[in-house]
Each structure stands twice: as C-alpha cells, then as structure tokens.
Amino acid sequence: MASQLEEIRKDPLEAHTHLLKWVCSHGGHINDSVCIAHDDQRGVHLQVRADWPTTVPKETKVINAPLGVTMSYFNAVDYSSAKGSFSSHGVKLPQAFIEGVGLAETMTFFLIAHFLRGEQSFWYPYLRTLPQPGQMTTPLFFGEEDVDWLQGTGIPDASVSRYRDWDKQYDFSIEKLEQAGFEGFEAFTWDLYLWAWTILTSRAFSAKVLSSAVEDADLPEEGISVLLPLIDLPNHRPLAKVEWRAGEEDVGMIILEDASPGQEISNNYGPRNNEQLLMNYGFTITNNPTDYRIVKLGVAPDSALGQAKARQIQMFPQLAAKTDDHYYIFNVSYPLLTPQGPMEHAIISPALFNALTIMEANDRERKRIQIEESSISIQTTYGTSRSALAALSQTCLELIAHILQLQGSAQDLPSEPANLKQIFAKVYREGQITIDKTALIIASWTIARAREHERDESWEGIKSLLNEHMSKIPPGTFPDDIMSRTKVRILERQSFIPKNGELFRLAELFRLLPKDLQVPSQKYFIGRAANGPWGTDPQVMFALAINFLVATATTDNQDVQALLSSRLTRWVDFLVNEYPLPAGEADESASAAQQLLQALSKDRDGFLQLAEQDGVTWLPSASKWLAPEWLQWACIVGDAERVLIPVEPLQVLVTDEPTMAKQAVLYVPQL
C-alpha cells in the first residue's frame, strides 16, 4: 500500500477527490458552496469556492459523513444493537486479544490491520489520504538533529515518557495477539503501532458522535476514539467557530460564523497551545493566540501546599480523579480569560498564582489558607499581600532562568531550520521565550509598584511609572503589537495588590516615620546603632530597624504618638498581635543574628544615651528599644516578613548574562 500511496500523493487532490466520492457514495455530502483545495502554505484544506457569489452564512452544514464510514472500536467488535450496527469489514481480531488489551489498544490494532490490507480495506479511500508512517511530524518521529531544536523545552522529556508508555503497551499487546494465535501478527510492527497511535491522538473524535447508533450503556465516557473520514480534513484554526453535530445517521460539521468566497473553512481542536499541537498533531502556529506554557511544580506531600491539596481531596473526594493542576503562564493575547480577575491572573493562571502564594507564605499567612472545591488560596486581607509579592518575585526568577535555558540551548543551532519538523520546533521555542519575556515584564511591574514610595496610584502616577518600566525594554525586542498588548494587560485590570509601596529597603523604612522624626532617627540608627560588627549583616540590621520602629510606635511620649501615621501604628499592632514574644533569653541554639543582637543589647544603656544626643528623645530605658526579648522577637519577625526580590529582572532582555542578583526587602502592608 505504501508504494502505491507514494505515487498517488504526487497529486494530493486526486486522493482527496476520491475520498469525497467514496464518502458521498455512502450517503455523505459536501455543501455546494465549498470545495477541497490545495496550496503550499495550507496543504490540502477546505474553502469556500472562490467564484461563489455570496457569503456562506453561519449555521451552514458544510460537510456531513454517514456513520457507516466512521471507524471505531465498535467496528472492531462488529457491534450491533437496536439503534445501529458497525461492521469490521473483514478484520476479525481474536476475542481473547480484545478482552485482554482493552478499548484503546483494540482500536489501534484494528487501524493497523486495515492499513495492512491496502486496497482490500473498506477504508482504503480514507487511509490513503492520511499521513503515512514516514511522513509524521510529531516529536516521536524527530531525528537527532530535529530534537536539537527542542532542547531546553519540556517536549523531550514528555516525548520520552510517551515513547516508554507506548512501547510498554505495544509489547504487551503484540504478545497478547501472538498468544491468541492471530495469523500474521508479525506484520504489526512497532513503526506501524507508533503511526496508528499518532493518527488516533491527532485525528480522532469523541465517541459521543456515535450516540445515536450506540446504546447508552455501551458508550463509555473515555477509551473510545472515532475516526471521521472527510470531517477531519479541515485544518485547525484557534477560535474558529464550528460545531460537530451528531444526527441519527451522520455527523455534520456546522460553521457558526459567516465565510466569504475564497475563505478557508477551518476546524477548531480547542484552545491548544503549541506544545500540545506539536506533541499530538505535529505542527505549531506562529503567534498562536491560545499559546501558553505549562509549569510543573514539585509539591512535597508534607509541604503547606501538599497538605492543603490532601485536605481538599478529603473534603471533596471527587477531585481525586482530576490530575491537571492548571499551572500555566499565558501569552499576552490569550483570549479565554475569565471576564473579571486581577491583572496578575491574566498572565499567571489562578491555580498557579495561588499555589505559589502558598509555597511562599510565612506561618502567619498559612493560617489563612482557604480550601474550596474550586481553589486553594490565601484569604485576601490585611497583611497577606506579602505572599503574593513573594510569589511574583519567585515567578520572575523562574522566568529569567527559563529564558536563559531556552536561549542557551539554542546557541549551537543552525541559523535556519532544515525541514518542516525544525520549522515547527523553532516556532514553538520562540513562542515559549516570548511568553516568558512578556510575563516577566508584567510580573516585575507589580514588584516595581511595590517598590515605589513616591508616586501614588493615580492615573498620572501609574502612567509615569509604567513608562519608566517599559523604557527598560530595548527597542525592537518585540513587535509593536506585542508591546501594545503587554501594556493593555497591565492597564486593563486592577492588580491583585492595588497599592504601591509595600516593599522597603533598609534605609527606606524611616519613611514610615513622621518627617520631624526621620532625620534624628536616621542619624542615630545609621551612625550609631548600625556601627558595629552587626552592620554588615542584613538579618541583624532589619531586626534592629523593626525593633526601632516598634519601640517608636509604642512610646509613651504623647507628642510623638500624635505625629505617627495610622499605617505605622496598625502595622506594629498587627505584628505584636501575630508574633508572640519569646520567653527567656536566646540560648546556644539561637541563630548567629540573634546572638549578635544579644551582644548588642548588653550595651543598651550606652546606646540609649547616644540616642538622646542625636535627638531621639522618645526612647527611654522603659521602651522596647534594644530590650533583649524584643530584639529576639524582631529577628523572628524580620525573617518572616522579608521578601527576596530580583534586583534588575528586565536585565535578561538586554544581555544574555544577567546578574540574577537578589535583594532583601521588608514587607509593610498598606492600609
């Protein structure tokens, strides 16, 4: 059959014209307004006739195929009921084999058997139009040089996993076929098995299309794939509005949008990203609007997220059967987002965002984990945006690492692809990099706002800060439409964190004090308290700063109290309430930072005298300033409330060797 097909496929329309006649001879139909066409860009496809005088209106059935030409498991078993019947057309697989291997494997071997029959097969007019074993372009058919174009992506590992699964299934099934005494089982080779499974994963429809001819009790929800000759001819177009309608005797393809003369009639495989399209169908789409990157998180069972997931399944047992976590990074044009939702969810799927916030949450935030059937998240309330900012920081770092991985693995590639497989792989790879880079711009935008202490959230303030943020992107990095769409994503929805200025470097913390107190506080803290062996230890310095601010906010000096902002006093009250004061002095098991702080506290009286000299007159000996138990407390609070953020996240857009530097900042929530 293969040699005959090679000759036939020199004229691809001849084979498809024959297919059309065959389907029509069994009761199928193609609308007069459409025809099968071919060109180098789209291959064989369906289109409205160029000379058709009018627009083809929506709700037009452009193709219908009778149930008698479909191929499925029901054909393999010669299924018959009061509702309908399906013939095996001369291929009789042993009953012991069918019972031993199950639905999917039976269909796979049934397809191979008819392929081997060549022109003697009932489905020969259909099979000759399918891609042949040497023409498949999914990654399992990639050569060594083709695979090089996929390095650094998730596809090689996914391909190896699929190959192993199918190889194991094949060995089991071919052994069952031999044991059943099937004559000629040797012809069912691994190559044909790989081809058949690829055909089924790329072209098969759900068994629901056969519902009118199969008893409900015989129609399982999963495991049965149906090949629909002619119906599967149209190419995929994301967001194409079509519908397959199963009738009592046929299956029809209905267009749900008007089509103009000469316009291609496309199918819609669903919102597939380029990874799914390449893995299952063997092609990719440049600027695929429904593209996204799948993110895998390692979740330890004893982690906060692992325990929350286990608890969710206890509460909602039906979720145990669902294995997809929906952890995605979306492209900036992704059209299927929920109508409402924070800006960050337009680029990071809600499930991934929530998972990251739990993974980055501190102990006090984890007390606010909410478990519902649809989600696991941290309650949005005062003081919980820290986990969101920490999650976004980790997202930025992961995106940078992934960009560098993809770019690094492409350094030794040829300047241009050598074949169609490599072209598809390049489109996929470049799409992943663009997704990462645009997501990085948006995730780091929220971090930039959290670091902004001058401009407010007014339109002018946001516009000024956004222009500054976008100016860090080198000209020509992205096409104009992607730059424009990135800005729209930032501006069209409110951020998960609506207020600016919740992350502080050490020196910036004094902004929380009234202006009259800032100068003496900085003079004393930086010139005196920070002058010692602890001055180079960020953990110690943040603890000292927290201790100083808490002592100031809780002073008995009424004149100072009258000047303090509600933001500072509420934050201090919140911390004192959330973190219990440690009992007793720090012991030998205390951290190095705590031991340094204990040593500093021994000279407390001297520091208090210096404070008064510098104008800090509101910290008497009865205050919390440099009290040993409060220093130990401040060290615990500082460790829990700090966030590590990337210093220059957009540097990866400028150079292939970014610094990847991180800095510690302290979280102080806005009111």
TrEMBL record:
InterPro entries for this protein: SET_dom_sf, SETD3_SETD6_MTase
Gene Ontology MF terms in the entry: protein-lysine N-methyltransferase activity
Domain of life, per lineage: Eukaryota
Protein's name in the database: SET domain-containing protein
